[in-house]
Amino acid sequence: MKPVCVVLGVARSHVVDLLKRPADWVDARVLAKADPIGDAMIADAVRAEITALPTYGYRRAGALVNRTRSLIGLRPVNHKRMYRVMKEQGLLLPKSPKRRDSGRPHAGKVAVEESNRRWCSDGFEIACENGEVVTGVFMKDCCDREIISWRAWTGRGLPGEPVRDMMIEAVEARFGTADERVVMVEFLSDNGGAFRANETHALARALGIKPVHTPVNSPQSNGMAESFVNTFKRDYVGSMDRSSGAAVLAQLPGAFRHFNEVHPHSALGYKSPRMFRKERRRQALENGAN
């Protein structure tokens, strides 16, 4: 059989599979394409999920649809079928332009394998229609991607006090008290004055946090925080009422809550950060029981 397969340019394993197939075998992909009612149901489910999230592509939209389907006992939709249905219905996003290669590539790795090993932080600004600017800062876990704590206010500039308040809240949220900590947490940030201030470093040491700053002019070294800012502005800020600073501040708690509880993250198997943390805790309990 090998010489024949070589001449035909086909794999022997594929020929063996063809010989084993029954006479009534039908490609499941053909059956899927011949199911217009099922496709219509999927398209309706996608529209229901992305109405408030128009920036979600087929991967994230599919993750949300499959979460709902699993709750009602339906089988998940394959991502290839999801892409085909959304393409046929004109629900796909336009392809993003190719990013330019950075002149300072970052060869390191920000992500870690366990929660509470490294946190990262960055600031952001949201311009309002009335000329006001909302400034914010956040603390993100580099494993489970949860936004542990954040602060926002109307006005430009990033003072040190909100950063220090955010650090205290993050420690309380993850450890309860400093005495309950079992590891030293790295705190990765850029070289902004609020992060490098002596008061911030002193508080970090008191809380059991090790400040780590990126090299100058190297935002790639804090890529996880930079990526969150881009995601947050694209998926949440873009659809906000930005008529005033007060309007934006009123919407931020819901946006951060949605990111933590609902937003599918590719690095987490398209689970949300809190779904991922819940799954990790369940696995730890099962392993401990065994």
From TrEMBL:
Protein name according to UniProt: Integrase catalytic domain-containing protein
Start and end residues of each Integrase catalytic domain: 101-281
Entry-linked Pfam families: rve_3 (PF13683)
Cited InterPro entries: Integrase_cat-core, RNaseH-like_sf, RNaseH_sf, Transpos_IS3
Regions that span the bilayer: none
MF terms (GO), sorted A to Z: nucleic acid binding
Biological processes, Gene Ontology terms: DNA integration
PROSITE patterns per UniProt: INTEGRASE
Taxonomic source organism: Pandoraea thiooxydans
